[in-house]
Structures are given as C-alpha cells and as structure tokens.
Amino acid sequence: MSSLDHFSQNLNHQPSLGASLPPLKIRKTTVEVPIIQGGMGIGLSTYTLAGNVAKEGGLGVLSSAALDRIVSARKGKKFNARDAAAQDVRDAKEIAGGKPIGMNIMVAVINQYGDSVLGSMDGGVDVIISGAGLPLALPEIALSHPRADDVALVPIASSGRALDIICRRWSRTGRLPDAVVVEGPLAGGHIAWKTLAEAEDPKNKLESLLEEVYPIAKKWGNFPVIAAGGIYSHQDILNSIDGGCQGVQMGTRFLATFESGANDEYKQFLVESTPEDIELASGPGSPCGMLFRVIKKSPFYQQALLRERAPKCDKGYLLNKGFCPSKYENEKTFCICNGLLASIDLNNQNEKRLYTVGENAYKINRIMSVRELMHELQGFPAIEVKAYV
Fold first, then answer.
1. If you placed Cys at 36, which of 120, 249, 331, 370 could pair as Cys (CB 3.0 to 4.6 Å)?
2. Is the dihedral of CA 4, 5, 10, 15 positive or negative?
3. Are strands 29-31 and 24-26 parallel, antiparallel or unpaired?
4. Which of residues 48 and 15 earns the better pLDDT score?
5. pLDDT at res. 317
6. At residue 196, does pLDDT exceed 70?
7. pLDDT tens for residues 311-323?
8. CB 41 within 8 A of CB 50
9. Cβ burial 206-216 (10 Å sphere, 16+ → b, else e)
10. Domain map of the chain by residue range?
C-alpha cells in the first residue's frame, strides 16, 4: 500500500460542508462547492488529486497531457491516448464516489486532442475544460459521442473577444459553452499572452478581463463565468462571487497537497519559494509560443537559460502549428515535455526537472491534505490531520 493510500484510509473522512458558498451548476452537473481544481499537466493533476477534490465537494479535474505514458506506467501495460483518458476518469471517479470529475484538454496537444475528448467521455467525464489555444473544434468532436448531451463543455478564454469568437464558431454546431473559465495573467503554466508587456499590462488584469467577458457570456446564453489565475484564499473566492462570477478555478493551491503528483523536491521548492523565484519564461520560452510561468530554480529551466540542452523533441506532445521548434533550436524556445515528464519520474535520468507554478506560489508555507485545503477555502475552522505516513 502506498503512503497516499494509507493516508486516505486513515483520514476519518466526513462529508463536505460547503454551506457558506453557493453550488455551481454547469449543464447537468452540480458542483457542491464552487471550486474547480485546475487541470495541471504533466501528471500533476493525478486521479488521486482530482478524486479527493471531488469527494470534498469541488470539481476535481484531470489533465490529458501525456496520459498515454502516465497511465501505461501506472497500469503496467500499453494505453493509447483515448483509452488512457477513459481509464484516468474511471480511476478518479472511483475515489470520488461518483461525484463530478472534469478533464482539462490543451488545444496545443494537437495530435491527441480528439482522442482525449472522446476518451474522457468514454470514461464518464462530467466536464471538459479546454484552453492553451482557442478550442474551436471541441463541440464538433464531442457531438460525435453518444454522451454528448451529458457532458459540459467549458472553454478557457482570456478576453471578451476570444470568448465571442468561440461562441460564434460553436453556435454553428448548435452547441454553446456551458460555462467559461476566464484565466488572468497570474495563472501557472501556459498563459494566453506572448510577451511580458502584454501579460503585465493593467488592462489584462483578471478583474478587467472579467468585465469584458460578463456581457459576452450574457449575450450568448448567460452561462456561468469562472475566475482563474491568482485565486488563493477564501476571501478571493468571496470577492470573485460578489463580483459576478459563479465559481473559481485554482491550480497552485492544489499542487501543494499530499495528493498532487508533484514530487518531494517540487513541493519543497513551493514551500521555500519567494516572489523573486517565480518567472514567466519567454527567452527562451515554450515551443507553443505562449508565456510559461516556472520556478526559476528548476534544474531544467536553468539548463535552458544556459542553452546547455541540445535541441531535441522526442515526445511530440506540445506543438506549434504542427511541429515543435525545440527539436531544431534552443535559442528562442526550450523543450517543455521532457522537463515535465522528468518531474514525475517518467523520463530518463539524463533529463532534468521542470517545475511550473502560479504567481502566488510564494504564499505557500506548508503542504496540506485536500481535505484541509477545502476546509480553509470554504472559510471553515482549521482541521487537524493526525497522520500522513
């Protein structure tokens, strides 16, 4: 039995207590507590994390990135992208007791996008969240599946204009978004902007982006708006709801839990980080052309800054217009997939580790259980967890 399994069995679990925050309704799915755990790849939003978040009343979200490798390693046999997505959803659902599970599917992982959508639906997913590019093809893919009417489709947008483009395109299929995640520039991993000047422009603060998006969401059916990027505390959640959102999405807070896929070194970096340790990688940056927030001390990132890693792309998950520039040069871009796979010990020993976080990661001072975190985020008194062995 793993330490995480032992911890889960000895938690003295009680039902969630989300009375102080309103539920979040997305299509046919009701989330008891309006908190969506962000889908963090590669291998950070594990089935154990998503399942436990759902068990506590939030929406637990998996990440489809590299699931073929991750699930194959976990199960000891070969899985393709579609079957891996289905299996990960089933495993998370088992922990969650059938409560809602979502899947985050990056547009930039173009070679597996359709299989990840359909596989998630095969496995019984309740919500599909899609960004890292405009998910214009999502409804057409989903509508080919027999569960299309049951699954909520949620794009990630970082401007009112982007959401309007998505809605106009989706409307041709007869399907509109069931909600939208509005992600500001303080988010972890990939963000929508391509230059530091754009990301730091005051007009792109999350509050300003939400004001852009509210009328667009109302125009296309008044679907729920979910705030993301820099949400950290119970008060942040209350402020978002008071401002007009129906829920929030949070990644980094859940990264700093026992149940996440982050390794011990990663979690130690989180606890020890300062504001100066967190950087938007841009020169070199991500091969998909978007800014990518990292812990500056990540060994893989330090190697990239010195251009010490020879250009190589042998995984092929994250592509820019169908190819990976990191296969050919290391001046403007650096490989993301190999560094992230190394961070979950699914790569050869020659590859160093890459750690991505949100802007507010420096506020984290300890690792806690999902149950503790969900209590804190709902504004309840702190609870004591006596054992993690």
1. 249
2. positive
3. antiparallel
4. 48
5. 64
6. yes
7. 877 766 656 566 6
8. no
9. beebbebbbeb
10. 3-262+363-377, 264-359
* Sole residue written with tokens 């106009």: 168
Place of tokens 């959640």: 237
- Examine the pLDDT at 389 and tell me if it is beyond 50: no
Classified by CATH at the fold level, domain 3-262+363-377 comes out as TIM Barrel (3.20.20)
Which of the residue ranges 63-67, 346-350, 384-388 would you say has the lowest mean pLDDT?
384-388
β pairing state of 35-37 and 247-250: parallel
